[in-house]
Design a protein that fits this description.
The structure holds 2 protein chains of 2 kinds. By secondary structure, chain A is mainly alpha-helical. Chain A contains 13 helices and no strands. The longest helix of chain A is centred in the C-terminal third of the chain and has 38 residues. Chain A is globular. Chain B is elongated. Chain B starts with a helix and ends in an 8-residue tail after the last helix. In chain B, 74% of the residues lie in helices and 0% in strands. In chain B, helix 4 crosses helix 6 and helix 10 crosses helix 11. Chain B is built from 13 helices and no strands. Chain B is mainly alpha-helical. Classes of the chains: A mainly alpha, B mainly alpha.
Chain lengths: 316, 302
């Protein structure tokens, strides 16, 4: 087991190295003078020179690269120009918000996606199956910010059931958190639930066709038992690999959802950083988020190996 | 054949197959696509948007940026088909021109992916020495959450239409390259390719004549989904304000501007959003249909 974890961590090293190199290069790929671009149109020569010096852009490229990696290893990614805070600190402050929202959305995704996918597979070609798949198709085609806007118009403006936006931390007030997070989480989750439902359905159909399912039924086991213990248990294994992709899509989706519902998470932080040309924040936030996602994917792979002994013994 | 056998065969669709043998194989594929209900629905939805976009100068002659402050917030009516916005601009014109921009950006991203995705994927899949390097870079680009990378790239390049196209190209090309690479790896080991190698064919000829034509099916399927992602992500970027900047009308920035007025003038949001959804739904259905017909291995069981 330890072998798997070490191998996966090992394969993450080159990826993280290139990810960090790309984020480092970003500021140098700005057309023209990056310092002038950051300072904006109305800046004086002196202000531009100050920014150039503060960001170390006046140093040779190799020195800058060296500083970037030395900083990475010390957990120092520079200071946000907009917030004046260290980038790592600003990110870590916002991270719990995005994680809580993503976790909530993930739970909804799993409940709806797995549930409807399994039911659709068990009642293949029935009206339940068709309705579920039509909803899944609409779900994957509905832009999450459009769904969010429609929900705001309906549930917040017309019915006044939920606030239009804002955020209350779970630790401050669990019910307030539920009230502020439900619409964002649902608008994020429906798209992914559609995706998951389609994958779950096809995986279940694949498994249900296997010989061991027929054997189990033939030897007289009740259908319910066969579905839960034989089919579902095996279908869930390939589905775990999808969870990594879903988490990545959740983080992607949270960028616009957080902005739409004024939720102070990573997505909103980075959008603001981009709009205000706060490049150290963009670089650092992008790197931290991506590195975390790489770790999540390693976790998913390890779970996969735990669930499926074949992966472990093949040494794949 | 006994009449009931003929009926049974026809019912099973076998007769169609018998007839198809007399035609060119491409026609058989087209026929199967046209028999695919979801594909036809998708094609119809997508065509509506594409035709509207192509005819923009004729069907929406009013300048999408023409201000008419006396005609603010008019609801949809026969005179103003989609109503007007906070500056009295015709929402019909804005949505139609927005459709054109979405189609241009979608096609450009698809073209970038078709060219570079194929080049990178074929190089990585065919030449083992290149595989490691190319796929490491690919994996790194795919490790970024898509929308975050896209806003990161627009932060670097700027918010013009061209920059958005490049950003979406950077985000999605690695995904396309990976799909091309997996087909090329499988095809490279096929016996007919080995035979071509033995017959003395060069790398270029083998790739072009023997491998790439057979790697097209999964690529075409991917490109139709990619068109949907590109349109969707472009709308997301311009909704966030990091895409094409106003006054250029895009579905995303029309909706972003409409947000403030959603209580009194919800049509500013609902109409472009519906257009966006129709486009994405159409392309997804199209992609599903293409996959069922062209690439049965990947098929979601019917």
């Amino acid at each position: 087991m330890g072998g798997i974890i070490i191998r996966r961590l090992g394969s993450a090293v080159p990826i993280l190295l290139i990810v960090s190199l790309i984020t480092f290069a970003m500021i140098h790929l700005i057309p023209g003078d990056p310092a002038a671009a950051i300072a904006g149109l109305s800046a004086t020569q002196e202000q531009i020179a100050n920014i150039r010096h503060d960001l170390g852009l006046d140093q040779p490229l190799l020195t800058q690269l060296w500083r970037w990696y030395a900083g990475l290893l010390h957990g120092n990614l520079g200071r946000s120009l907009l917030l004046g805070q260290p980038v790592v600190q600003a990110t870590m402050l916002r991270l719990p918000v995005t994680l809580a929202l993503s976790a909530y959305a993930l739970v909804i995704t799993l409940l709806i996606g797995l549930g409807s996918g399994i039911i659709a597979a068990l009642r293949q070609n029935s009206w339940v199956d068709q309705v579920a798949m039509i909803f899944a198709m609409i779900g994957i085609s509905l832009p999450n910010f459009y769904l969010g806007l429609l929900m705001i118009i309906f549930f917040a403006v017309d019915l006044r059931w939920l606030p239009t936006g804002g955020y209350i931390a779970f630790t401050d007030d669990p019910f307030g958190w539920l009230a502020t997070s439900t619409m964002p989480a649902v608008s994020l989750a429906l798209l992914l639930a559609g995706l998951l439902a389609r994958i779950t359905r096809s995986t279940m159909l694949e498994v249900l066709r296997q010989d061991y399912i027929r054997t189990a039924r033939a030897k007289g086991l009740p259908r319910r038992l066969v579905v839960v213990k034989h089919a579902l248990a095996n279908a869930l294994i390939p589905i775990t690999t999808v969870v990594g992709i879903i988490v990545s899509l959740l983080i992607s989706g949270s960028v616009v959802t957080e902005t739409l519902f004024s939720i102070p998470g990573i997505g909103q932080l980075l959008t603001q950083a981009v709009l205000n040309r706060d490049y150290p924040m963009v670089q650092g936030g992008l790197f931290i988020t991506t590195a975390l996602l790489v770790l999540v994917n390693i976790g998913v792979d390890v779970c996969y190996a735990l669930l499926d002994p074949r992966v472990r013994y093949d040494g794949a | 054949m006994a009449p009931d056998t003929v009926i049974a065969l026809a019912a099973a669709g076998i007769e169609d197959d018998l007839l198809e043998r007399h035609h060119h194989p491409a026609w058989a594929t087209v026929r199967r696509l046209l028999h695919h209900r979801l594909f036809v629905t998708g094609l119809l939805l997508f065509s509506i948007i594409a035709i509207v976009a192509a005819l923009a100068p004729w069907i929406a002659p009013v300048d999408p940026n023409k201000l008419a402050m006396r005609q603010k917030f008019l609801p949809p009516s026969p005179e103003h088909l989609f109503g007007t916005d906070n500056f009295g601009r015709s929402l019909w014109s804005r949505v139609v021109w927005g459709a054109q921009l979405s189609m241009i950006i979608g096609s450009a991203v698809v073209a970038i992916n078709a060219v570079f995705g194929t080049l990178i994927g074929a190089a990585a899949g065919y030449f083992r020495s290149l595989d490691n390097v190319l796929m490491r870079i690919n994996d790194a680009l795919m490790a970024f959450p898509a929308v975050l990378l896209a806003i990161g790239v627009t932060a670097v390049l700027g918010p013009s239409v061209n920059d958005v196209i490049i950003a979406l190209g950077v985000v999605y090309t690695p995904r396309t390259a990976r799909i091309v690479r997996s087909s090329v790896i499988v095809l490279r080991e096929m016996e007919y390719v080995q035979a071509a190698v033995a017959a003395g064919a060069g790398h270029w000829r083998i790739l072009r004549r023997h491998i790439l034509p057979n790697a097209m099916a999964p690529l075409i399927v991917q490109l139709s989904f990619l068109f949907a992602y590109a349109v969707l992500t472009e709308a997301t970027l311009s909704f966030l304000g990091v895409g094409a900047v106003p006054p250029t009308p895009t579905w995303g920035n029309i909706m972003a501007e409409g947000r403030q007025y959603m209580i009194d003038a919800p049509w500013i949001i609902t109409i472009p959003g519906a257009a966006l959804m129709i486009t994405v739904l159409g392309l997804n259905l199209l992609g599903d249909g293409l996959r069922d017909v062209l690439d049965p291995r990947l098929r979601i069981q019917q």
